[in-house]
Amino acid sequence: MPAGIVEPVRTSPFRTPRPPPFSHSSATSLLPEPISGLWTAEDELRSINLGECSNGRVAGRGQSGDIVVERAQLYDVVIVGGGPAGSTAATLLRKYRPDLRVVILEKEVFPREHIGESHLPAISAILDEMGVWDKVEAANFPIKLGASFTWGANSERWDIDFYPVEKFRDEPRPAKFVGQRRHTAFQVDRSIYDKILLDHAASMGAEVRQPVKVQHVLHEGDRITGLRLEGGEVISGRHYIDASGTVALFRRDLGIGGTIPEELKNIAVWDYFQNAEWAVHIGVGGTRIQVRSLPYGWIWFIPLGPTRTSVGLVCPAKYYIQSGKTPEQLYEQALIDQKEIAALLVKATREGPVRSCKDWSNVSDRAAGENWFLVGEAAGFADPILSAGMTLAHSSARDAAYTIMELDRGEHDPAWLRSRFDERTRLGIQQHIRFGQYWYSANSCFTDLQEHCRSIAREAGLNLMPIDAWRWLSQGGFSADLIGQAVVGSFDLASAKQVVQRFDKAGRSPGMIIDGKNTFKLNLRGATESVIGDLRDGRINRVPCLVRRGAQLPLVGNFAVVVDALKVSSDAAEIVSYLRNYVNLKYAPIHRKHHFDALIQALEALAQDGWVEAGVNRKKPLMNVNLTDSRHIRSSSQSEEAIAKVDPAERPTYKSNI
């Protein structure tokens, strides 16, 4: 029967040999082997209700709700969307399981423009695992060392650096993913970047089809049985990944709801400029993105290459409507109002026309089903203020690929694999949404949006007192982003607390529980044993953890090291000595302070979640933990002072245009 022709299910008195369920064991063996046996029309209906594929046919509910059977091309994994999430999943599936037949269905022909150009360092490790780091580095995208903000209690400019700028060294490019580059990120031109990744997925053996538009998801209950393409062709697989971005194809056709914070409904308006001045040059190709508050929103400035820069405005949708301005008028006004950004564009040429889109934060009620997974923005979207969108896309796609491979191996409980993916994916988005709500609520620079900011806080149940704000921000624990590390919303614990202090008008700090204490005792009362997944080298390893009243203690990474130290002694001096010895044995001198600080933050996280009881022995010295001594968050003037103190022979090339 030609593709696209629907064959109705009908009862029959005849008994015919039943074709077997589809089982794909190699890239070339696509047809089921003949088997003996008889089956009836009742068997066929039962098979349809289960959504099984057989003999090149796929059964499912059509748009009318009727059961239909259509001929389909069969794959192991079908991925909708060829952006970074889709390419990441396909590449990792083919890297670790080259026997799998993987297809990417992309509705556009690459290269194509796309918003979302700013990375976080976590992506770099994934690019390296994919084997595409060298290709991305060869494209000569700017190295992102961090970001510069005017945001918070006042208009002072301050920096967040992934790597201390005074320690960054000039080195030729392209460089390898070693040393200082393990702590940096990229700022990418998506028309170039996305094509590099999609071409790489194809080079790994994934089939890439473009332009191909998926018209409808065929499904029976929660099981997807096929995807009908525009034109009638049906594609079927054992597993499906929705990387379709804001289209959220599976959510739409499967009727999956979601949560949209009412007060985080923003719009973005942007354009690209040729030959803009970079705000700052650091080393060879290094810079920071620039984020500047306006009374009614904020503006981004992101160099994408030697000559091209992305400049955009984000503001509440309500403000845009009430302003009565067109997107072009609103954009032009923002460029006039933000003097520092305007100065960088004096000699630049706008590409035009202005682009615009909705920036509505949201999270899906579910991120996984019987044989499908949502990744990237198909699962949800967090406001771009934290530049987390691409990180969430790459990391959730990696997780989906790992989960599918483990489902095929059959060594872990399938329900556990699906639920851990669902929980991790949605919690990661929720944490970043929560951070976004706090950033907007606490920004005193939004002078035209004060009631809007208060509404965000009310909707979120957020008290802006530093201690209360910190407790609210850290809901959900510290292990959603990176297993075994004290991380929340892409920030390490100390940096996140410094943000809270910087946003408080009185400069008050949420403090550290372990500061001023000197005894630390494990408190495991009432905890139950469980497991979490640790993703490494294509496998999800089950590692032990403890659970109590919703809080998790992963017995892996920095948390495991701290727990081991606490088992040896409860005395602060002895614990610190244990941790220093561990770091000295494991890491090179240049990396020791970073890893020691991470262990101290893990101790603080355990104290906050009640796994550690902190106390005072008045006969011994107290622990002094200074939050302000940071090389990651500080005023821009402090960053420049730190560079000036470095020996000229070791100092990175540094030039500021602001």
Key features of this structure:
658 residues, alpha+beta, FAD/NAD(P)-binding domain, D-Amino Acid Oxidase, Chain A, domain 2, 3 domains, ten-stranded mixed β-sheet, 18 helices, globular, disordered N terminus
Structural description of this entry:
By secondary structure, the protein is an alpha+beta fold. The protein folds into 3 domains: 1-113 and 190-257 and 363-411, FAD/NAD(P)-binding domain; 143-186 and 262-360 and 631-658, 2-Layer Sandwich (D-Amino Acid Oxidase, Chain A, domain 2), CATH 3.30.9; 519-615. The chain is built from 18 helices and 33 strands. Strands 7, 8, 9, 15, 17, 18, 19, 20, 21 and 32 form a 10-stranded mixed beta sheet that branches. Strands 5, 6, 10, 11, 12, 13 and 23 form a 7-stranded mixed beta sheet that branches. Strands 1-4-3-2 form a 4-stranded antiparallel beta sheet. Helix 11 packs antiparallel against helix 12 (450-460). It is globular and about 80 Å long.
CATH architecture of the largest domain: 3-Layer(bba) Sandwich
What is the CATH domain class of the largest domain? Alpha Beta
Number of helices: 18
User: Could you say which structural class the secondary elements and strand pairing correspond to?
Assistant: alpha+beta
Unreliable sequence segments: 1-55
- The dominant shape is globular
Helix content: 25-40%
* CATH homologous superfamily heading of the largest domain: FAD/NAD(P)-binding domain
The domain count comes to: 3
| Number of E-state strands | 33
Largest sheet: 10 strands, mixed
Overall pLDDT score: 86
